[in-house]
Each structure stands twice: as structure tokens, then as C-alpha cells.
Predict the structure of Pyridoxamine 5'-phosphate oxidase family protein.
Amino acid sequence: MTRPFYHDGMREWQDATDGRRVADALEERRLHRTFWDEDRALITSAPFFFIATGHGQHMDCSIRAGDPGFVTILDDHTLEWPEYDGNSMFRTLGNIARNPHVGLLFLRFDGQSRRLRISGRATIHGVQHRVVRVECLEIYPNCPRYIPDLASGTPSPHVPREGHVPPAPEWKQRDYIRDILPADDPFRPK
């Protein structure tokens, strides 16, 4: 049995902003538990990703980086990477040792590639030569709406700025979304 994708706090915000219909549609259409081809391409070509871990009040966010291909996909819902030499603080591994629940974020700072969020359970294998393996329980692609293109120095056109009207994000124009956007959404069809 899997946990609900949204907890009560998320639902409260969705209801307060008339966003529950959109949230439910995104869960139905975008949430998956096995890797799509586009997920595999992003993960296996990634030179880095971010990892969130926590235990009690000890929350942490870190980056893992290596040559593209350092993250290996083992099967339809499992990935792993080597833990390279660090600063001996072991904040990430220490949290995983006490709480296996992790959040991973894969993205390219190119202003156009989708982000990929993964929630899963991590295990640590080895001591001197460590590998972290994650069973991916929720795989969720996100739009790149606010991500800048760092290579060109171009900011996202979607960021609100004085004198600038941001364009509609692609996902808000999808057939299964556009007519259920919140009543006050500026991109809802009139």
C-alpha cells in the first residue's frame, strides 16, 4: 500500500486556493512509480542532483555530483550512486541511517528541460566504498517554468517582473488542465 500523494497540509492549501482539481489531475496524469524514458534520459545524463534528507528536527539538503552516468538505473524503479569522499560530517548518510525517506531533484539549468522529483526509500551499501540505492516510490516530472538558462545568463520569462507579462506555462494549456484551473488563475480560459 502506498501513502497518499498529498497530506492534509497540502490539501488545506489546495482547498484554500481552489487548486484541488488541478492537483488531482496532475497526480492522475503525471505521478508514476516506474521510470519513463524521459526520466531515464535525464537521470543517466545528470552531472548532479539535489537530495533532501531528515531525521527529527535535523533536515538537510545537499548536492551529489559526478561525471554524467554516475547515477545508475538498476531497474524500473531503483537507482543508485557512489558516495564520494566528503567532509566527514555525514549529514546525508547519517539522516538516511535513521530515516530512509529521501527526496531527489534532478534538473538542468537550461530553462526548458523538465525537473524530476523523486520520493523514495534509501539504503546504504558498504562502508569504505559506499553506494546509496533508492527505491523510487513517487516519480513526478515538473515544468521548468522558473528555471533560468545559466549557460546563456537568460532569466526565465515566467518570473513576474515589473513591466513584464509572463507567458502561460505549457502545462496550464493542456486539455486536462486548462478548464479546471482555479477561478482566479490568469491563464484560465474566459
In short: The helical segments are 8-16, 20-30, 37-45, 91-98. The two ends are 41 Å apart (CA to CA). The chain has four helices and seven strands.
